[in-house]
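[step 3/7] inverse_fold.run input=structure_tokens len=319
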């Protein structure tokens, strides 16, 4: 059971505590066992009720759950032979993004994923999943390597944004992201982008240009976080819930806008409650998408991406 609960999960927390108390009993009797079964049934019903009616803001909070699976969890589960590649060959390695090669089913693929930490020490090492310029350049190096050997590229997005520090700006943060957008647009191999948690701003977009965009059910993807939007529009970050409704950043919203191509269902209560089930659901979808994309000729990827992104947004020509 999860040891971290969001505010709207309080009914589940209370039931978990009661279940844990009964399960830790040294000498349970028949009445205790019956009570335990009833509590477990009640817990399942409570989770179904809570998660069947999540607001956009609650889904944003769930995407940030500290127990959610991160990129490395998926990479190691999918590719036992995963080999991590480090460094951008210009400045240094960026631990905020994990890149490497490995088998995925009967294919070899290039994995690229933003990585957060599980505790303070890990988060400091991973820079809270905020990539620096060298991270984007490392990702691009691996993409070009994948293109050279004809390997599909799968990117996992999970970041609150690119790192806004002075050093990152001095080393060309904006240029590094822009370069990735340019190079990914013309990459002659399939690219699948997957939002597994938070997909914020150019920080996610820097590895997000793709042929197919997949999103796990309890994730979000937007030009800015709800708190950032609220600070700008309402001068009050506490109005993040209101901003989330205006931004419409959830998978369902983005499918309607034509940005997200496919929503991956999560287990009842979120991916962190059953990682294996969630990972298998995503694996099935990824293999299906790779099968379809493998039929595309290398020279057609650029034109297909132009058509895909030209459909986004709305504009009207003036007289």
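[step 3/7] decode complete -> sequence:
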């Amino acid at each position: 059971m999860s040891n971290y609960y969001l505010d709207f999960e309080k009914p589940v927390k209370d039931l978990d505590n009661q279940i844990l108390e009964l399960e830790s009993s040294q000498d349970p009797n028949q009445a205790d066992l019956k009570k335990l079964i009833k509590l477990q049934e009640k817990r399942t019903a409570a989770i179904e009720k809570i998660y069947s009616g999540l607001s956009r803001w609650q889904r944003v909070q769930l995407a940030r759950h500290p127990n959610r699976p991160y990129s490395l969890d998926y990479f190691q589960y999918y590719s036992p032979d995963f080999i991590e590649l480090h460094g951008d060959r210009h400045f240094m390695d960026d631990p905020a993004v994990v890149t490497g090669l490995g088998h995925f089913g009967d294919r070899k693929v290039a994995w690229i994923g933003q990585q957060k930490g599980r505790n303070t020490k890990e988060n400091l090492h991973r820079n809270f999943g905020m990539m620096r310029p060298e991270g984007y350049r490392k990702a691009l190096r691996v993409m070009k390597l994948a293109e050279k050997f004809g390997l599909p590229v799968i990117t996992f997005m999970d970041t609150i944004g690119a790192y806004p520090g002075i050093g990152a700006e001095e080393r060309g943060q904006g240029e590094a992201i822009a370069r990735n957008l340019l190079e990914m647009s013309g990459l002659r191999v399939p690219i699948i982008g997957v939002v597994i948690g938070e997909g914020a701003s150019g920080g996610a977009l820097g590895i997000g240009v793709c042929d197919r965009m997949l999103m796990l059910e309890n994730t979000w993807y937007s030009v800015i976080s709800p708190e950032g939007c609220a600070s700008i529009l309402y001068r009050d970050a506490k109005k993040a819930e209101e901003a989330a409704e205006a931004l419409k950043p959830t998978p369902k919203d983005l499918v309607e806008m034509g940005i997200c191509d496919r929503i991956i269902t999560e287990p009842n209560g979120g991916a962190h409650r059953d990682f294996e089930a969630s990972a298998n659901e995503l694996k099935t979808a990824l293999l299906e998408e790779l099968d379809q994309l493998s039929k595309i000729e290398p020279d057609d990827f650029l034109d297909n991406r132009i058509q895909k992104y030209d459909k986004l947004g709305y504009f009207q020509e003036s007289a």
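[step 4/7] annotate
The radius of gyration is 21 Å.
Residues 30-51 form the longest helix (22 residues).
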